[in-house]
Automatic annotation (TrEMBL):
Name of the protein described by the UniProt record: RING-type domain-containing protein
Keywords: Metal-binding, Repeat, Transferase, Ubl conjugation pathway, Zinc, Zinc-finger
Domain RING-type residues, every copy: 375-586, 379-417
Pfam families according to UniProt: IBR (PF01485), IBR_1 (PF22191)
Alphabetical GO biological process terms: proteasome-mediated ubiquitin-dependent protein catabolic process; protein linear polyubiquitination
Organism: Paraphoma chrysanthemicola
SMART domains assigned: IBR
SUPFAM superfamilies from the UniProt entry: RING/U-box, RNA-binding domain, RBD
Keyword Nucleus found: no
Length: 586
């Protein structure tokens, strides 16, 4: 599971269920004998000077063999003596002798390609099956009598969903990164773009988890852009996240050849482009903030002023200044009126608050009613007749904008209705908030709610142990531990003991092994004896029998074992047959 990270990539898709299998294609060796040792050495230099020239798609491997002889390897199986002689520079050999083929299998069993080696990708349904294939098949001989071995390595792949506009903006920085990661770490970065769609895909893949994670981090750093900031931190002025700011930001971006992304989820501005342009845009944003700051004011309400505002005073303020200029915030501990306007507007509000007596207001304005008995209904947030009214599941009417404000500023959950002077207490449902929130606002509310949920349930959920990684997993019991493969930092962890995965061992056994390894061989031997832990007869890996019958299978080498006598077998059937015949039970 994941929370939103500090980049502009969407949901990651980690794929660990693939492996890469590669091996050298079949070849043969020729031994060339020359008339003199000088001719052999001269021929060696001339063959090496051929450079990248190939014979039947193969670059030859040549070695000097004392005396008067050369060994020529990596020859295609179809190479004959006549063809070899035509390819070789002078002086010609006096005799050609063929060595054995590198593989015993016939050539028809292999792809008929000119390349020196064959590479295939196999995909499994689960990551565990891929890990098992690497354990069992890596470095296995292609033939019993061959020295050539098959290389089976994990294929680590991660896909990022990225805004097409951001991907286009970072292309000048991304192209050199693509080249560098391949040259230095053999990690590939590929883009999959469709100009008609809002999002594109970036795939990062290679054989090393650590190197893929390193490349992913570099790509995400580019995707994160430069967060516009002033001297005190990121610029978060609400003006920049309203539709009305679009023309200002578009003009500013065009003037300095910079792309400005409004990250509504985190309320920050991300800048993409050249260093000079970004610096100029940031200065302009800071200057605009200073200008905007002069137009925002806060009036804190004491209990008497709050009571007056709720009973109808705020309605008078809205009537005097307009609803777009004032906001009553009673959700937080500090009750206040937020004003977007001039100091003259603030003075007018103060005059209303101080000039009208609370008692007279009770006679002038009816007590707020939502009973449906014909009396006027007021929004429980701004205490004015609802604009673009929305009725909640519990039956109270809100202004659409007020319900949005309550949802987006919430820091405690579940959200509660403020109807009946905040005495309603009913939960605001997902159906309610979906009526008024945009997709991004809804996602942001969900993220905030989820974070609150996780923090209150630390016995059930655990964050990934990698610093700054925001992924999390459900904790499992020690009897059934699972492996969590993090798609953020690409690390793996046991979901029970929160240590490195330990396939085939319980958490307790793994802890004991680690402790014994730290304390020395004597402690290890004592622990194994006390817990009946035995070494695999074939590969020596410690095996603990936690439960079940006496047929065991080594998680490392996959050999089947009779736990009674520790004899080994090639299959489960052979093991059970032996146990029934020799030991009389299973």
């Amino acid at each position: 599971m994941q929370l939103g990270g500090e980049t502009e990539s969407g949901m990651n898709r980690l794929q660990l269920a693939g492996v890469t299998c590669s091996w050298f294609n079949p070849s043969k060796v020729a031994y060339l004998q020359y008339e003199t040792d000088l001719n052999a050495k001269r021929a060696l230099e001339r063959i090496k000077s051929l450079g990248s020239k190939q014979l039947i798609g193969r670059k030859l491997d040549v070695m000097y063999q004392p005396v008067r002889s050369l060994q020529v390897g990596n020859l295609d199986l179809n190479t004959n003596e006549a063809g070899l002689r035509r390819f070789l520079p002078s002086p010609p050999p006096t005799k050609v002798t063929w060595g054995p083929k590198s593989h015993r299998r016939v050539y028809s069993q292999y792809p008929k390609r000119a390349k020196q080696n064959t590479k295939i990708i196999a995909k499994f349904s689960e990551a565990e099956a891929a890990r098992k294939a690497v354990k069992e098949m890596h470095e296995t001989r292609l033939d019993p009598d061959s020295n050539d071995k098959m290389q089976v390595t994990p294929l680590v792949s991660i896909k990022l969903s990225v805004s097409s506009r951001i991907l286009a903006a970072i292309q000048p920085q991304l192209d050199p990164l693509v080249d560098r990661t391949w040259r230095t770490d053999y990690v590939q970065i590929k883009r999959y773009e469709d100009l008609s769609k809002q999002y594109a895909q970036v795939r990062i893949f290679g054989q090393s988890r650590e190197r893929v994670a390193k490349a992913k981090s570099a790509v995400e750093k580019l995707l994160a852009g430069h967060i516009a900031a002033n001297g005190n931190g990121p610029i978060t002025d609400p003006f920049y996240f309203r539709p009305s700011s679009k023309s200002f930001l578009d003009d500013l971006a065009a003037a300095h050849c910079v792309f400005i992304h409004q990250d509504l989820r985190r309320s920050v501005l991300r800048l993409y482009g050249g260093d000079t342009g970004i610096e100029q845009v940031e200065r302009a944003l800071v200057a605009k903030c200073a200008e905007l700051k002069e137009s925002f004011h806060t009036i804190f309400l004491d209990p008497e002023a709050l009571a007056f505002a709720i009973k109808g005073g705020f309605r008078q303020i809205v009537a005097a200044l307009g609803k777009d200029k004032v906001k009553l915030d009673i959700i937080n501990n500090l009750k206040r009126i937020i004003v977007e306007g001039s100091t003259k507007d603030v003075d007018q509000i103060q005059e209303i608050l101080t000039s009208c007596a609370f008692s007279s207001m009770e006679t002038q304005i009816a007590v707020l009613s939502i009973s449906g008995d014909g009396s006027e209904v007021f929004c429980p947030v701004c205490f004015t007749p609802p604009e673009a009214p929305i009725k909640t599941s519990c039956g109270h009417l809100y202004c659409s904008s007020c319900l949005v404000s309550q949802c987006t500023s919430a820091d405690s959950f579940p959200l509660k209705c403020l109807g009946e002077g905040a005495a309603c207490g009913s939960s605001i449902t997902l159906a309610d908030v979906k009526k008024v929130l945009s997709g991004i606002e809804y996602d942001n509310l969900f993220q905030t709610s989820l974070t609150s949920y996780l923090r209150s349930r630390t016995a059930k959920f655990q964050y990934c142990s990698t610093p700054d990684c925001d992924r999390f997993y459900r904790i499992s019991n020690s009897e059934k531990p699972r492996t969590f493969d993090c798609d953020g930092c690409l690390s793996s962890v046991c979901t029970s003991c929160h240590q490195n995965p330990h396939d085939g061992l319980t958490c307790e056994a793994n802890k004991a092994l680690i402790k014994a390894a730290m304390e020395g061989d004597e402690e290890l031997a004592k622990w194994k004896k006390d817990n009946d832990v035995r070494d695999c007869p074939k590969c020596g890996v410690p095996i603990e029998k936690a439960f079940g019958c006496n047929h065991m299978e080594c998680i490392s080498c996959r050999i089947h074992i009779c736990w009674f006598c520790m004899k080994t077998f090639g299959s489960a059937g052979e093991t059970y047959k032996h146990m029934g015949r020799t030991h009389g039970n299973s």
